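Entry 14. Two folds queued back to back today. First construct below, sequence then structure tokens.
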Amino acid sequence: MTDTIARILVPVDFSPHADRAVAYATMLASRLGATLEFLHVVEDPVATGAWTGEFYAPNLSELLNDMVADAELRISVLKQSAAQVGITADSAVLTGYPTDAISDHARDGHFDLIVMSTHGRTGLPHLLLGSVAERTVRNAPCPVLTVKSTGALAQEAAA
């Protein structure tokens, strides 16, 4: 474990919740002199079991390629925004299961911190959908800072 935070990984799903985490991570990187890497994981519907052989979808590989290309375009905007405020940022788009991809990427990239949003689901939606943030906290090789989707902390980060 390192005693400095020099590399921050920011997983994003392009939701307003993720925007708050991006704002907070950007502020944190600015204060610490750290670099950022924005990461988006495109879930491969076949690999994750969302679409089985019983489901017909024309040209799944083309659909997956389109999803990756769209994510790369959207994530490049985040990278440019960070550069405009003087922060060095990289980006990556991976395919797979989000929790595994985030943890593996954090391990392989030797990140010091992961900053990510929580969607604030409770009750049945949380039980059924689970929480990528919660599973990442359990599996990550480094500390994970979760940014709540509501509250004073998120509002300050978004400002």
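Second construct, same run, same settings:
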Amino acid sequence: MQDEANGCVLFADVSGSTKLYEMVGDKAAHAAIDLCVKLFSALTEQHGGRVIKTIGDEVMAIFPEARQAARAAVDIQLGVSEMAPVDKVRLGVRVGMHHGAVVEREGDVFGDTVNLAARLTEMAAKGQIITSLETVQKLDPIQRLDCRSLYEISVKGKEKGVAICEVLWSDTDDATTLIASHASVEGGDKLRIVYKTRVVELTEERPSLVLGRDATTDLVVPDRMASRTHCVIERRQDKFVLMDRSANGTYLSIDGDREIVLRREEALLRNHGFIALGQSKTTASELVEFFCE
């Protein structure tokens, strides 16, 4: 029997679990991930939600209201951030959630709401809570103060794009705005990132890259001024955006322009330049170079 209802679907996914298994071994990694999953489940129930299922290192849950899901998401991030490192490796969690119509059948839920919540989770970086503007509008006024608008994404089957937002949860988070150069954005189909001997290309197939000093990030930059998860570079349609998530800021130098510092802000990458984590290019020993091609 199928029942249609409204609810807020939330996914919480342990970030970097594959690397954790490689670094600390199966036994220690499994124990740490199991602890995270139990934490996700307990906080879901504490905030009035219901765990639908667990899949490896991910929990899928549903809440009657968006505000309950948002409170659970924040507590999940806080709970994981307070966990002790596993052999010097700090765990993180990605959360995505969306409120809308769902179809319930035999204890499971299906439909576009579930699919969009899952997609938002995939888009989230370690330590992020990503949701839709539609969901944010259903939060309490005080909760909406901790949300920032990001951008629109295209969704299969929908004529209009879906506006997405981030729910901020740490003491260093604040509302941000997109910093876009007034100059024309000269780019191409890919962004080439060069750090020492490593080269990474962002394309449609690989649309994002997380930088930081934590061993579970995509590109580890061991600068003493860098945060564990310092910044994210993401492809949006035909452009590439740098998003700061750090305590000390991300310093961006584009050829021909003065250096700018991003503090919980975003900037469009264009042409060629350098990214320094936590300090100016003039003093940093670790520099990440980029080429828009």
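Quick look at the second one. The longest strand covers residues 2-15. The chain has two domains: 2-167, 178-292.
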